[in-house]
């Protein structure tokens, strides 16, 4: 890793002139200064790159993913292969309590990340008073950034919606679909066709997406025209669960988004959600949770590979809350039960446990420590020097 870090920075500048020519002048200038500093300064500190300024941000949310869910990747993954969670040099912990309840839902949980304020459970991109507040990616869009959202749920579901919509209640998915049409999102992928096509107002919002410059793929990744804004609606509602046969949608959509954004010299903010870790928790289905965590870990690997190769991208992984009171239990009766793990649950709902934060790349060092979920938002801007 040390040798790799030393190597990446000079090369990144040569291979990716976007560092110099990026449309986002402010962040680009900072990047160049930092890159030149990296070239001239001899150091062996493996965390050095963590102190620099990112050009891009990839933010991955494992909905319902507490430390036991992360731990599952260490016991159920491919034999002899370390989970991608092991690749992060910086760790933090967040308190996810919402503005209305000790235990958050996914609306308030994602809204805390997107607007930097605690709001009430069910809120989507609005504060405690129900007022719209600009999201992290909306602010960055005003600075010339591209942004994208990817989810294994419907794309109008609470977590992705909190980044581009501002509505009082997460259940307003028809309104949220409309918000996506009028947003500045330039890449999205998930399910949720029904919120665009079978609407009470009879408007076909897939036609509207096309009208607003999207190429919309309805069958498979890779089918949209990358010279336009790209949208994928690949299921009527949520995508299939991994244990019921979903393919590598999440890592593949992440890879396609990164390829799409890298066509342009502009910076990008990409949110990637492993939505169904939460759904497995609600079902108290250990296999469901584990398969979703392993799939999410693959998407993390795609993000980290990109960040390692390009040297200019901050990767942050966390969760909105934990779901299920999931634990990797023994049989609880005797030492003889310590050889086997039996996943167990303590609730069909969410819990208040602190949630881990993993950070890699320029700006990562801001994400160490123990703090509120809302600080994720402010740390993105601190990392950008704003
Ligand atoms: Mg979610
Ligand atoms: Zn949930």
Strand order of the largest sheet: 5-6-4-3-7-1-8-13-2-14
- CATH level-3 fold name: Alkaline Phosphatase, subunit A
Number of helices: 14
Poorly predicted spans = 1-46
Question: What is the oligomer described by this structure?
Answer: single chain
List the helices and strands in order.
HHHEHEHHEHHEHHEEHEHHEEEEEEEH
- Let me know the number of strands: 14
Residue share in helices? Answer: 25-40%
Report what the structure shows:
It is built from 14 helices and 14 strands. It has about 375 residues and is α/β, with parallel strands linked by helices. It has one domain (about 10-385): Alkaline Phosphatase, subunit A, CATH 3.40.720.10. A ten-stranded mixed beta sheet has the order 5-6-4-3-7-1-8-13-2-14, with helices on both faces. Strands 9-12 form a two-stranded antiparallel sheet. α12 runs antiparallel to α13. It starts with a helix and ends with a helix. The model is unreliable at about 1-45 (pLDDT under 50). Magnesium ion (MG) binds near residues 63, 153 and 158.
How are the elements arranged and paired?
Blueprint: H1 2-15, H2 18-21, H3 25-40, E1 56-62, H4 67-76, E2 90-95, H5 106-115, H6 136-141, E3 146-154, H7 158-161, H8 173-182, E4 187-191, H9 194-197, H10 205-211, E5 214-217, E6 229-233, H11 249-262, E7 268-274, H12 276-282, H13 286-310, E8 313-318, E9 322-323, E10 327-329, E11 342-344, E12 350-351, E13 355-360, E14 369-372, H14 375-383
Helix pairs in contact: 1-3, 4-13, 11-13, 12-13
The chain binds magnesium ion and zinc ion.
């Amino acid at each position: 890793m040390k040798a790799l870090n030393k190597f990446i920075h000079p090369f990144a500048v040569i291979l990716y002139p976007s560092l110099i020519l990026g449309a986002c002048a402010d962040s680009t200038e900072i990047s160049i200064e930092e890159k030149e500093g990296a070239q001239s300064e001899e150091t062996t500190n493996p965390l050095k790159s963590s102190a620099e300024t990112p050009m891009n941000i990839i933010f991955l949310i494992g909905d319902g993913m507490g430390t036991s869910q992360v731990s599952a990747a260490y016991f159920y993954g491919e034999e002899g292969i370390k989970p991608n969670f092991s690749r992060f040099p910086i760790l933090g912990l967040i308190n996810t309590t919402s503005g209305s309840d000790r235990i958050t839902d996914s609306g308030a949980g994602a809204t805390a990340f997107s607007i930097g304020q605690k709001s009430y459970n069910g809120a989507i991109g609005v504060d405690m008073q129900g007022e719209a507040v600009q999201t992290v990616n909306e602010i960055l869009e005003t600075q010339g950034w591209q942004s994208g959202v990817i989810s294994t749920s419907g794309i109008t579901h609470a977590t992705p919606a909190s980044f581009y919509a501002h509505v009082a209640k997460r259940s307003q998915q028809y309104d949220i679909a409309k918000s996506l049409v009028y947003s500045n999102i330039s890449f999205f992928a998930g399910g949720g066709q029904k919120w665009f096509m079978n609407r009470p107002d009879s408007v076909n919002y897939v036609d509207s997406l096309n009208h607003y410059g999207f190429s919309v793929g309805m069958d498979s990744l890779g089918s949209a025209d990358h010279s336009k804004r790209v949208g994928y609606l690949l299921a009527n509602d949520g995508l299939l669960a991994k244990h019921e046969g979903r393919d590598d949608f999440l890592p593949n959509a992440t890879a396609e988004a990164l390829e799409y954004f890298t066509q342009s010299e502009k910076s990008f903010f990409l949110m990637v959600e492993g939505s169904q870790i939460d759904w497995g928790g609600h079902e108290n289905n250990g296999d469901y949770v584990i398969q979703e965590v392993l799939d999410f870990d693959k998407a993390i690997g795609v993000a980290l590979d990109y960040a390692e190769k390009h040297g200019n991208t901050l990767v942050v992984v966390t969760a909105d809350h934990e779901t299920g009171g999931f634990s990797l239990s023994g049989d609880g009766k005797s030492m003889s039960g310590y050889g086997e793990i039996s996943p167990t649950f303590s609730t069909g709902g969410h819990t208040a446990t602190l949630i881990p934060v993993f950070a890699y790349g320029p700006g990562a060092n801001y994400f160490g420590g123990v703090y509120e979920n809302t600080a994720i938002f402010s740390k993105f801007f601190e990392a950008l020097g704003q």
